[in-house]
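The material for today's practical consists of a large collection of protein records. There is nothing in a record beyond a sequence line and a structure line. Backbone structure tokens are a discrete shorthand for how the chain folds in space. Nothing more is needed to start thinking about how sequence determines fold. As an example, a complete record with its sequence and its structure tokens follows.
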Amino acid sequence: MFEAAELGQSLSVKEYEASLPKLRANLLQAQLELRERKFPVIVCVSGADGAGKGELVQRLNEWLDPRGVETHAFWGATDEERERPRYWRFWRTLPARGRIGILFGSWYTEPIVRRALRKLKRSAFDTELEHIVAFEQMLADDGALFVKFWLHLSKREQKKRLKKLEKAGRLGPDDWKHFKHFEEFAEVSERALRQTNTGAAPWHLIEATDRRYRELTAGEILLKSLRARLAQPAPATAAKSTAEKPATGLASRRAHVVSVLDRVDLKQKLSRPDYEALLDAQQAKLGRLAWAAQRQGISSVLLFEGWDAAGKGSAIRRVTQAMDPRLYRVVGIAAPNDEERAHHYLWRFWRQLPGAGFTTLFDRSWYGRVLVERVEGFASPAEWGRAYQEINAFEEQLTDHGMLLNKFWIHLSPQEQLRRFHERQTVAYKRHKITDEDWRNREKWDDYKIAVNDMIANCSTEYAPWTLVAGNDKKFARIQILKTITERLEAAL
């Protein structure tokens, strides 16, 4: 791929200055149209040390309206970043729809450097590249436009550049170290570019010897990419109500509702004395284990899903009662706000991941994409259909990092749910818990049952299994949840 770079390309000052005003005007016009079309643009600037990556980033910021641009430089990971999965630092910086994100360094940097210095095996490197392709494809499926620049220099030119930067006091701490491995970096980088040069996120290789040629070429590629996307018709959005667009994949199966939920024994219950004894023992155990996990830097993510009135909130309270408040945080998930809708649906969950030794409890979760958004038609069949694999990949990153992930579906019978609804209507301090939406959801019980079955079938993995909780008796459900958490914590410790 590097052989295709047009070596020795240059522009005179006259050619550069003649072309620049029109390019800048066209970029600003395309950026203005982008605000209306509202898709995110991710610009990755990568390449050889000394190739002028920082100068190019500065120039793009000069040419674009800064109000619609975010620039992020990725250097060594901070302590906060090292406590979370590697992609956490990138997810936090992804641009919203209608904005441009310029990334100086990216998810490519660490794998390439580690492989070139032989700190990463080739098989592990190829696995990293596969993850990158999947990550970029996921964002592209959600509408993101990728513009990836690789700035190329010959070995001779790079040496000349590094000497110049050293004389000016602008040399990076690892630049000469990396130069000693020029051939290894060239080989590894070419392999990375070849394997991640996809239709969804293609690479643009730019000969970077001449500053004017490098900058003008990058600007023209960015403009061409923006115009090509803006010329395409806007994708159809999912309906906002089932009246506009019924949820697909459900109606034809309602008459044959057979679900994994049918295997949950809802007759299981505990007497009050047994419950109180077990509750005291399990909460005391969890309290000790939570501090042990904190000392060892083991973090946990607990997510609670289930039918309306299944007892998610009361189960969460029994868990948090056992833990020191400094060690956990509860995140309640409702309909996404404007900022969250402007990003990929997983963005808001990545931002909430706990640091080392801490716990985050999610009252509802990312599974809303394949549950309520599917059933209510808020996500298109393509969106919720690909979400299963996206969620599995997300959860695998969490567990590969060493996080414990506990996923609970609290199941109950329609009859018990109806009893609890009526109780909420008649008991004053519970009346706020019942809404019209609860009754509407109940009417779609069979649709939700199918969606839950598909969710469990597709997303109960070896590394992140679902725990189906028998919820007709709240006492039994709470103990089952506490036992599951303490058993997994003990095993990890």
User: Anything to note?
Assistant: The CA atoms of residues 283 and 322 lie 5 Å apart. The radius of gyration is 27 Å. The longest helix spans residues 13-37. The domain at 2-231 is CATH 3.40.50.300 (Rossmann fold).
